[in-house]
Amino acid sequence: MRNNLKSPSLQVTESPSRDVPTIPKKINNESLMRLNKTKCFVRTFFVILLSNFLTLSLAAQSLPMSLDDCMAYAVEHSTSVGKKINDLDNAEQEYNSSVASLFPSLSASVSGASNFGRSIDPETNNYTNVSTFSNSYGISGSMPLFTGLQGINTLRAAKVARERGYNELQISRDEIAMQTMKAYVDVLYYIGTTEIATQQLEDSRLMLKEVKKLYEVGRKSAADVAEVESQEANYDYLLTEQQNNLALAKIRLRELMNFPQDQELEIVEEIDVEFVSMLTPMEEVVNHALNNNVKVVSAELNTSYSKLNYQRTKGYYFPSLYLYGGYNTSYFVNMENQAAYDSFLNQFKNNMGSYIQVGLSIPIFSGLERRTSSRVARNAWRNAELDQIAVRNAVESEVTQSYQQMQGYAKQYVLGQKKLEAAQLAYDGIAAKFEKGLVTAIDLQTASTTLLQAKSDCLRSRLQYVIEYRMVEYYNGKELINN
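Below the sequence we write its predicted structure tokens.
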């Protein structure tokens, strides 16, 4: 740096045009260094910002999934829902095709031929033995005038099938959501039973320590110690069983959601439950479901589709009337004497021709094909009507059962809470008496089993109420998934 400072090239010189000194190269280098530092800082800032954004995104993805999150995920990734979407697209294409079938059909043709040797001159109709070339052009169309209303009924049936496709898609989504909800609740139930079994095992181990101490001072017998050890082993086995049930329930939930089995699925382990009385009477819920539920609507559409299909087959017995029309022209030339023939444009104009035609087809006999098709379609219509009745009965039964079970589980939970409090007090009292030697280990085990069952029943009724309450709301018109 010292040598550079002494160099004349770095001294301030006067500008030839004005009295403003030029900037030395050293100052330019310092400015460039500051600019590079600024760029480096900006890049570092954006890298940090991007990394924080990715961290927040990953953290958001790793948040525990609620019941609605799991149901939405399952519906979005369901293969059966994907198939229904494809079926709906097929129904859309069938509808478009049926609409297009009512329009006239139009086709064009072009042909060319070279003849060598003996042939017929199209202008003189005499045999020639020369090389010729000819080509022709044509355009034709046809339109159905009357086909026994087959086209109209086909269009109506395709429209109904498209509407039915939308309902079938919604049915598939609802079924996946219901299955996921039940699997989610199963996971919560086994989480709760695992916690209960863990707590019972810890309590039994503490009790075993106390009994062993009392045994050492002679206040408990060896039989009492053995009985408590047996109780501890039983709770240990119960805990292992519940842990296995929990693992299987999680596998089932991931399966329904199409969630990778090799990834841990974190879920919200609590569901807010409000035990409120359903304000809507059961009769109103049933009537709403019978008039609006997608299963009932889909069955009604299926009946309409079968009826229209039957009416379409009845059109096979009627005559069919079609209108045809066309236009054509041609060109011919003797390759050995082209000058003797008109030009291409003249022949194209002079050889023009057109036609119009009406065709009537009257069905007489086709090996009972029309009769068989009509009978089969009529039976399909009758079966659809029977299926509609069965679906309505099934939906009515489902709504009635869900409504009744919702009320029943609510009452069971309220009574279960009281039963749990009483069982807890009884267990605490018997445990205190057991330490004083007033009751046997069998009495203690019986009280412990009663307490365990009360906790399990209370948990089960609470979670089952969640399912049935949501089902009743669903039948009453509310979406299964709360967005």
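Residues 1-27, 54-60 have pLDDT under 50 and may be disordered.
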